[in-house]
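To close the chapter, one final illustration. This time we ask the reader to focus less on the individual chains and more on the assembly as a whole: which components sit near each other, and how the overall shape emerges from the parts.
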Amino acid sequence: MDIKRSIRHKLGTVATELYLGDDLLGSALLQKLLLERKCVIVADVALKNLYAAELAAKLGAKLLTVPSGELAKRLETATHLIDQLLQMGVDKETTVIALGGGVTIDLVGFVASICLRGLPLILIPTTLLAMVDAAVGGKTAIDTAFGKNLIGTLYDPEAIVIDVSFLKTLPEKEWMNGLGEILKMGLIYDPSILALAEKNPKDQALVVRAVEGKIAIVEQDPKERGLRRILNFGHTIGHALETVSQYEIAHGEAVAIGSLAESYLSMRLGYLSKEEFDQIEKLYKRLPLQLPRLYAQEKLLDAFRYDKKNINGQVRVVLIDRIGHAMEFDGNYCLAVSQERLKETLDWLEKVYL
Amino acid sequence: MDIKRSIRHKLGTVATELYLGDDLLGSALLQKLLLERKCVIVADVALKNLYAAELAAKLGAKLLTVPSGELAKRLETATHLIDQLLQMGVDKETTVIALGGGVTIDLVGFVASICLRGLPLILIPTTLLAMVDAAVGGKTAIDTAFGKNLIGTLYDPEAIVIDVSFLKTLPEKEWMNGLGEILKMGLIYDPSILALAEKNPKDQALVVRAVEGKIAIVEQDPKERGLRRILNFGHTIGHALETVSQYEIAHGEAVAIGSLAESYLSMRLGYLSKEEFDQIEKLYKRLPLQLPRLYAQEKLLDAFRYDKKNINGQVRVVLIDRIGHAMEFDGNYCLAVSQERLKETLDWLEKVYL
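The assembled structure is written out below.
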């Protein structure tokens, strides 16, 4: 696989260059892109001796690290990182290279977007989830005590480098994590994804299709005024699961459970056929999913209150009417759903997984 | 005075509506604009019983307050405010109304720009300085231990309400503070400002010209890639004075001293004539300016290191070649200046004010 695609987000004035391929970090193209810049690499600390130190040495760049895990995605960590960047004397022409999984991409992207009112940014995702989700679409994010991603910016990186050779050493659990977002893309947009995943859930073509799907959606609605909302399928319940688990559950796993539950809800509300739901359920039941230890229905219902899609306190959910198609409701891409139906969906979910 | 102007920043997709006039907050127009929205007012705590509680009651809006003074412009205050907003259940359609001086405008604007990745924002500046500076141009800002405004975003408000009736109760010191930025606009862009100010420094026409000047500059370069830099005239030395004074000195006062010093530097480098500099010096010497108690030349030279205009560690300064005209250097609007010349300028400044 050796693909190079150039995309231009309509979000701002920055054109984002997307590089997608195998062994990209060793390629002459990338070396050139990166060597031309004054860079600081900010990597997940777990990657320090794995890839980060080597890359920093190759580029003659400084290296900073951030802690691993969702709990690192806090304002305190962001503040500390900004202090370190200012301390080392970054200026507005210093490119920040984020190297790591979704947490690192979200956190470092946020810091780059607010430090000196915006530093040039290059994203190098190292997990499957980050390749298909966090790295694409220009969103940065920080969690708060009230929920996930409640703080953030829309900020385009100058380049995204998706090097699938990182996947060779990806732990089994991380495949499942990425698959949650990939299958979601199958449910809302590209039905061929489900068929591919049924045959071989590690097919590299899944990465390409998920990334292409996300780009196609984001390009139509970079600021999430409408269509882009469909990317939130599975996320109303997914984010709430993450919040109540105190981020013990992985994002992709939470989205996988959320996607199954919101498919159930789509059927329960009369939009999705029983046949298609059964097909979805069959695929998801093959995955090693489980509810978090701290799961409690009332805590989940409470967590819905802080969902970013809510308007006037009403919980709104993205729904599908067939595999590969999210629904539009009068210009909106989510629908207010009653507490009763949400509760019923959780009751069903508990029967499956508790 | 009853002016309504509509401006559209090219920064993003939001069109900013500018209302400039007398007794606007009592006008039917404004009432309509604000009553149509679900609002939260975030006001400087010093205004709580002066205007804020009354406005909140009139609009049926919730009221939050932030501390007064530059020290409030910290990430800790921002974090606390975000927690309060989330706690009260804001959603992406809740408009945040910032009511106060420059500190409140910068801080609340920053919070609105990152909370839920951006809430609709309306700015109501209550000081002369905030009317001509912080409220116009789409910049938000937070200070760090390394210097002023080192964290921030570019984020357009939906409306700016400049109600000059606030100026009736403006303390004398605050006139001086606003005049610092107004006179700067005269030096870099609109020579008629200096002539007006010489006659009557409280002429309301000064507000209009300063705001119009800033809009004209920002519209040509919203993202500060070039021309907009000229707004930083007086700010290299001004910001450094603020930093070393630990924000004891007011921003406009620091900019006034900085503008005079950078006019001296412009002359010293051979760009500004002795005659025009003498005219500037004469006007500035009539103002009640003084260096901060904590002034020390070596601390100031050190503070220059964190200026946002720096590239590769070189301090860069905006210069003027005549009253009303900032200079362009080969596409750039600031020039690298040696430590020697900076030191010489500070030596001169100390002779005038110490």
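Chain B has 13 helices and 13 strands. Chain B has a mean pLDDT of 91. With these observations in hand, you are ready for the problems at the end of the chapter.
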